[in-house]
Amino acid sequence: MTKKTDKESARDSSSWTGPAAIAGAAIGSAALAAALLYSSRRKERAEKAKAKPPVDPIDTD
To answer: Which of 10, 35, 50, 51, by CA, is between 20 and 30 Å from 27?
Structure first.
């Protein structure tokens, strides 16, 4: 087994780029999912808001 030098151990303890990259990817994917859900909800609301064809009233005597 080899000994770690002071320089290597300092680099290992302050290395935050890996966790930061993972956190960035998680935030980005969550933002993408939220955008897709928002756009699909807007589409559904727009379809509901379209004018419905008039229904003929029932003839009663």
So the answer is: 10
Residue linked to tokens 């780029």? 17
Q: How far apart are CA 59 and CA 49, in angstroms?
A: 28
DSSP letter string, 11-57 = HHHT--HHHHHHHHHHHHHHHHHHHHHHHHHHHHHHHHHSPPPPPPP
pLDDT digit string (tens) for the chain, length 61 residues: 556 555 555 555 568 899 999 999 999 999 999 999 999 888 888 888 776 777 777 777 6
> How far is 47 from 52, CA to CA, in rounded Å?
10
Q: How far apart are the first and last CA of the chain?
A: 100
